[in-house]
Design goal:
about 240 residues; four-stranded antiparallel sheet; 8 helices; 13 strands
């Protein structure tokens, strides 16, 4: 069983702890057995690319452990992070189903355990297992909603400060809250990566985080970011000129 920086390669999906958090892995016994026969398990080190934007889709990548970022680039090299994939996400799904090219580049943010399924095998698998097809539709719907949220943030926010505040508020929804409405976030992204999420520069993100601290909207201690009060941060959206 291969191991890389705490990420362990599970050849048997039935005894994988991540199965409980991934609806795609939590299929019927018959479907799971069929899936076992077509998957190719591997571990990618931090910084490795699973696939590249514009590359013809040759399959899908089920993320079982670790995190990966999905990035698109302009012709001039400007990057925009479309999302952060977590265990249970299927990457390259729409491209594989539509027999087109990958819409983004997927890069491991940390060591990742990934199951790869060739396009022809995956499409046959969906045709033969209705429950897997339903889960694939749910994944596509979830990806659409995330894209819609990002488009709203980038297109309708009047300034970069609003975009950053909205990003932090979005993260806070998945974080435990404390007394008084404060939220603790573990910041695993650099200022450069945050900038690529909201379409701005690293310098702007650094300046805005400093401004948020001075306004007592947030506090930062090393990798820990605390939102003092999510309602206050939400109220700050639209207040900048």
């Amino acid at each position: 069983m291969k191991d890389l920086n705490g990420i362990r390669l599970h050849n048997n999906c039935s005894d994988c702890a991540a199965r409980k958090t991934s609806s795609f892995c939590n299929l019927s016994a018959a479907a799971l057995l069929s899936f076992e026969l077509i998957k190719i398990a591997n571990i990618y080190p931090k910084g490795a690319r699973l696939f590249i934007e514009g590359q013809p889709a040759d399959g899908v990548f089920l993320l079982c452990g670790g995190k990966a970022k999905l990035t698109t680039h302009s012709r001039y090299g400007k990057a925009l992070i479309l999302g952060i994939a977590i265990p249970g996400d299927i990457l390259g799904l729409s491209a594989a189903i539509s027999d087109s090219t990958y819409e983004a580049t997927a890069e491991a943010l940390e060591p990742c355990h990934v199951n790869f399924i060739r396009q022809s095998d995956f499409r046959r698998f969906l045709e033969q297992n209705a429950d897997a097809g339903v889960v694939a539709l749910q994944q596509l719907s979830s990806q659409y909603k995330r894209a819609h949220t990002q488009i709203r943030s980038l297109g309708l926010s009047t300034c970069v400060a609003d975009k950053l505040a909205a990003l932090l508020i979005g993260w806070s929804k998945d974080a435990p809250s404390r007394n008084g409405g404060s939220v603790h976030l573990k910041m695993c992204f650099s200022h450069e990566e945050i900038a690529e999420m909201i379409g701005t520069s690293r310098e702007t993100v650094t300046r805005l985080l400093k401004d948020f601290r001075e306004r007592d909207l947030i506090s930062i201690k090393g990798p820990d970011l605390y939102i003092r009060n999510t309602r206050r941060l939400e109220a700050a959206i639209g207040s900048a000129a």
